[in-house]
Amino acid sequence: MLKGACIIGQSGGPSAVINASAYGAIKTALESEAITRVLGARHGIKGVLDDDLIDMGKEVPAEPAHMKYPPSSALGSCRYKLKDPDEDETDYLRILEIFKKYDVHYFFYNGGNDSMDTCNKISKFMLKHNYECRCMGIPKTIDNDLFGTDHCPGFGSAAKYIATSCMEISKDANVYDKGQVTVIEIMGRHAGWLAGSAALASAFGAGPDLVYLPEVDFDLEVFLARVEALYKEKGKALIAVSEGIHDKDGVFISEYGSKLAEEKDAFGHAQLGGLAAYLASQVKRRTGAKVRGIELSLLQRCAAHLASATDVEEARLAGETAVKAALAGESGKMVAFERAEENGKYVCRTKLLPLDAVANFEKKVPLEWIAEDGCGVKQPFLDYVLPLIQGEPPRPVEQSLPRYARLKKVLAK
Amino acid sequence: MLKGACIIGQSGGPSAVINASAYGAIKTALESEAITRVLGARHGIKGVLDDDLIDMGKEVPAEPAHMKYPPSSALGSCRYKLKDPDEDETDYLRILEIFKKYDVHYFFYNGGNDSMDTCNKISKFMLKHNYECRCMGIPKTIDNDLFGTDHCPGFGSAAKYIATSCMEISKDANVYDKGQVTVIEIMGRHAGWLAGSAALASAFGAGPDLVYLPEVDFDLEVFLARVEALYKEKGKALIAVSEGIHDKDGVFISEYGSKLAEEKDAFGHAQLGGLAAYLASQVKRRTGAKVRGIELSLLQRCAAHLASATDVEEARLAGETAVKAALAGESGKMVAFERAEENGKYVCRTKLLPLDAVANFEKKVPLEWIAEDGCGVKQPFLDYVLPLIQGEPPRPVEQSLPRYARLKKVLAK
Description:
Two copies of one chain form a homodimer.
Chain A: E1 4-10, H1 18-31, E2 35-41, H2 45-49, E3 53-55, H3 62-66, H4 90-101, E4 104-111, H5 113-128, E5 134-139, H6 155-173, E6 180-186, H7 193-203, E7 210-212, H8 220-234, E8 237-242, H9 275-287, E9 290-295, H10 299-302, H11 309-327, E10 333-342, E11 345-354, H12 355-358, H13 379-385, E12 397-398, E13 401-402
Parallel strand pairs in A: 1-2, 1-4, 4-5, 5-10, 6-8, 6-9, 7-8
Antiparallel strand pairs in A: 2-3, 10-11, 12-13
């Protein structure tokens, strides 16, 4: 039995269920014999580097349990990118110093692609320096683009928010006798899992006429002709687009109209936005229709009030599984999901994948799940997403507003 | 007993609960002895003018009941403005013709300021032409700006959506170690009831630092200085603004940056939008901060999944009350709400107001409920809003997505 403290960190963009994973990991760790102390890193790996660690054992037990439902990262997140250790070991040596200071032998990192890369680098560095620390990745990304797992915690809730919001917007946009063209912009830089989920709304009778995923090249002229035809036929149109749609040369459509300086975040991703407004203005110019651009913006990743109970439970399970696997001797792995059927019903099983195999790969929507005309998804896509959005989790409220966990956040010494 | 058919119409912008009012009116009308036939006007008064009326008696009874929870207008809405009858009687004569054709002696119109004006004009025209038709207004507006009523159906649900979304956005925007300035744009052209509701989020621990209502003149320079100070102090800021904020000369701030042609709708209101993005860019220029502008857009008025049970029930009650009052002989009135307390608890009572007294007046937030520095609300505002957002209504779902009423919409002959 490897005795020692553990550190749990949350990284990358928020989701509705990342705290459910943290809760699953923290609870399992607090209950284990081998883990002597449970530390929460404030703002992910930055909290380790800055010696900014919360002693989770000092929280009122009921409060970490309250972490199961609120959105975003209760411990704080970061987008800090560790350098390649072959180039600069500074950060890694500091992490090792902190691990030694708190006798940390378990490290759990909860995030998406970049976070799995961080976890992998730390795992390898510790191995190389003969410091025994079992490092496990807990998947999280609303983008659903992690390689090797059937789906990712966070995606189901975001998909449910998107589908429900599209149904409500559809009801709203269709209310007048005079038609309107509405363009809804949905997150997802390179993978169309979220944008495609808008098609669930259509499958349930109130959704977009056209859905554009970034897996297929986007042609503005073809798009405008299609919307014009639709508008002439029906007097209205509802369109969902991924923020990441791009032309055949790879230029983001959002950059067509952008006069703002293009900014890149720490990972070199261009900052996207304003696409819905741009496309709406183009449609207006072409058709003269009343138009409206709607960006679902942050709410699609933090609207815990519309979370999927399935997603919440699977997120919790991922956290629990990571800790149990580490206790059983695993390291350098990420928890992943496998989809199965039992008595004709969807079930989700966990498995472990080497971090090497998942870090920095992106899983896109299979082209055979996308409609031939490039503006919709096929039934297998809907069949894939539908089980992931099922169920309404309990929603702790106070005076009908969300009741969030109240952590004391006692700094570890 | 006045025997005859009734027409029920929905008008103006959608809300999360306008269908609950329609349901309350339709159910009460279908159950009455005096009302021989219940007709739903498609797209409000346009449906009357176009002889486009649905026979609600031909619906499967379970389906009108399903109208109680879905958002937007199940019968369709319009923004058609009737001319002054002294100038042009054409529309009114047509309405009279349709009333006679279907033997209509009850008319219920559900909407905001402009709709109450429409209802009032029809009521007076019928009186003048000695055609007995009891005309009743059913209030509806998320803007909460109808005169003479404590509050309006639709407001509570929108306020709840705004407060909850602001809490979630606050959790999201605070997640990184590096700060961000986030500007949230909220509906409400001339009255700050909706924007002020964002302050509920702050009162519950996760909301905007600054809240701007259109009742107070907005000074861009003072705003930027305040945000800059806040950003320097805390490294971040969350700001909620009404779409209708304007400078001391009455110029909308949204027009400062707008290069789009200003469009006016049929009622002469300027179309607003893009304010959050504009203010965010101004803050970026001033502070260099990472910024994000978020427009809550249509969802704040159609997010029935986050409706207030209190609002839904009061909306239903307003519809029922209108029909019962008409059956009892009333006409030319609007149903209004009075707030009272019973055993220390909020209760809502109905009363009737002459349409003359409500049409075309706007009720704004009292200045004494707005903070002296003009960027927040005081406790009485919060005390006013809080009872209106209470309770979670049942939310009919199919496969965890909203289940809307399936009306056959059989045209009346």
